[in-house]
Amino acid sequence: MTALLVAVGGAVGAALRFLLGHLLDRDLPVGTFAVNVVGSFLLGLFTALSLDEQLLALLGTGFCGGLTTYSAFAVQTHARGRRGALYAALTVVVALGACALGFWVGQA
Predict the structure, then answer these.
(1) pTM for the complete prediction?
(2) What residues does 70 pair with on adjacent strands?
(3) What ranges do the domains of the chain cover?
């Protein structure tokens, strides 16, 4: 049952990631940046809320795992040359901050 929950959550998250990337990624990878930051916030929130195992499988592992993307992030970082280093650093710092914020919100 857990694998099915991960698959369903992942399908929804991946479809949303594709849609946002398709709509927002033009000259700058705004869509990829957004899904990684939002997914990090949500994962921090879900962790702080101490969701039960099945809900965490659906929302945390599945949805957030499907929503966020390392592969597109890596390709877009590489494709930007020197600006890619700034993009990578900004993504990591903002995503970690979003995760911490989500955790803090969930603890409140």
Answers:
(1) 0.94
(2) none
(3) 2-107
